[in-house]
Amino acid sequence: MGKTMYEEFASTPEGRRLLNRETLTIEVTELICQIMQEKGISRKQLAELLGKSKGRVSQMLNGERNLTLGTVADIFTVLNERLAVRRQLDPLLHGQSGDFKTTRMQYWVARVKDQQVWKYEGSRGSSVGYGEVAS
Amino acid sequence: MCIVKGRRHSILFAELADGSVPGREFFQSLADETQAKLLAYFRHVADNGKEGAFNKLRFRREQPPYYAFKTKGWTESRNSHGLIRFPCFCHHDLLVITHGFWKPRQKKWPETEYTRADTIRQEWLKLNTSDT
Q1: Does B8 lie at the interface with A, CB-CB under 8 angstroms?
Q2: What is the ipTM of this complex?
């Protein structure tokens, strides 16, 4: 079976670098958007909470503007949540066989609430930390 | 022309009877960084489904039956940033991208883009569902 366009793009070091950048951005911004939707918070309200303009928040969420780690922490703080991060083998290098498509992307970066224990168990191992994994 | 296979969807560019693939042709005219942005979001939607795409700045429902992948991109031919749209429709577990275009700023989609999406969708459906 032929490679998909995604796999072709990821087959070069430069393609893998670009995809990993974008994938991390998407994982973080999707979690932020999910929390905003669950809590009924608009982009305008998030901008007010952060003391930034709505346009700036839109730029951050659509990946146009690079998010610093400090800004990410600030966003989760004003949303009364915290972001936990864990390491894993690069699926673009280690998971290109058939099981790549079953990778649970939503757990690569876990959203947690403060002061509770959480445990991640997945096809690529398990880890334990503080905070509760949100569904 | 399969772009990505995920847990929830396979995403592909519509191929027409004459062998042309309008979405791919537009996609390949974009800078590598813009292609990576789109591919990473295609992967996200393929794995998490349309319902798992929370960022309306990246993917949203448009005039039925269409959804659209959205991003901003830079192009050498225009020498500027612009708004990019890739209309797509759902067929079983497939998300089929009809084509791509530069959207005018501060304006809704030109009606001609819906017409183009309709034309490509109908041709693709005719080619791919006639024997089922």
Answers
A1: no
A2: 0.90
